[in-house]
Specification:
The protein is of the alpha+beta class. It has helices spanning 2-27, 119-122, 139-148, 173-177, 200-206, 209-212, 226-237, and strands at 36-45, 55-62, 71-74, 84-92, 98-105, 110-117, 127-136. Bound molecules: heme C.
Length: 244
């Protein structure tokens, strides 16, 4: 009886080991000399709002040591908004530990991420397939979601009142800022399409005007990420349009 139990335990351990082994082998597929290929599908809206050639929506490979893409391929706009596009990025070498659907600038510096394929998936095969699902990558929608919704709306509109009467909630933000005179900087609009230097919103975030002019809230630390700031500047410079 005891012998049988011990045998069973041994058998169990062996089964476990071989199972582990199996999975390990699966994980350690050697990278072919041509590198790996990622085929990424996504249903995208708003991609044509990015002001090529300043910033691009791409599928790009990175490693953890640098913010610059090691390899990248532009994502084409679907012929009909919201339709599926397929991007194939091949030649992904060993040094790439992460592949993203993301925005980079013309120097290939990473700006922001929409979807990530992690190292575990990248080492499991030489042919990686992934689906990023439905994404609105429109420039204004991205600013709304990544900037206004995450911090600004706490004071600008999510409650019953809005600081400086400025509503930055999704339903109201665009009409509340474009071509609307600033209450804080005389002679300036909150956003002047085409001219970030003359837009109170960009000035509030990128200069110390809110300290110098003793605003009731210091806005200098609101957005500290250079990439996000330059995205806001690009959006204004290229006409401050609402996504279609
Ligand atoms: C903690 C509260 C708070 C947060 C968070 C905040 N603001 Fe403000 N904001 C204010 C206040 C208060 C004023 C008015 C300052 C005054 O009257 O002196 C103001 C004024 C402004 C103005 C000037 C409006 C005008 O008519 O000239 C802009 C533009 C602005 N904020 C943009 C933003 C943006 C963009 C964000 C997010 C990145 C943000 N604010 C986050 C409190 C906040």
């Amino acid at each position: 009886m005891i012998m049988k139990k011990i045998l069973l335990i041994f058998a169990g351990i062996l089964a476990l080991q071989s199972c582990d082994d199996g999975r390990l082998y699966e994980k350690e597929v050697p990278i072919s000399s041509e590198g790996r290929t990622v085929t990424l599908r996504a249903k995208l809206t708003g991609i044509s709002t990015w002001p090529d050639p300043s910033m691009y929506v791409v599928v790009a490979g990175f490693n953890d040591d640098s913010d610059y893409a090691l390899i990248n391929k532009a994502v084409p706009a679907p012929s009909v908004e919201g339709e599926e596009v397929t991007v194939q990025l091949s030649g992904i070498k060993e040094n790439v530990t992460r592949v993203e659907l993301c925005v980079i600038n013309r120097l290939r510096k990473h700006i922001l991420t929409y979807y990530t394929i992690n190292e575990e998936l990248l080492t499991a095969s030489n042919e990686i397939e992934a689906n990023a699902g439905e994404l609105n990558v429109g420039m204004y929608n991205t600013i709304q979601e990544r900037v206004f919704n995450t911090t600004c709306v706490n004071c600008h509109g999510a409650a019953t009142s809005a600081a400086a009467g400025l509503y930055l909630t999704a339903d109201r933000s665009h009409a509340a800022i474009t071509g609307v005179p600033s209450k804080k900087i005389a002679g300036m609009n909150i956003v002047e399409p085409g001219d970030a230097g003359n837009s109170a919103l960009y000035q509030a975030l990128s200069t110390d005007v809110s300290i110098q002019d003793e605003w009731h809230y210091n806005h200098t630390a609101e957005v500290v990420d250079d990439g996000i700031l330059s995205m806001i500047r690009q959006w204004i410079t290229h006409g401050a349009k609402k996504d279609q």
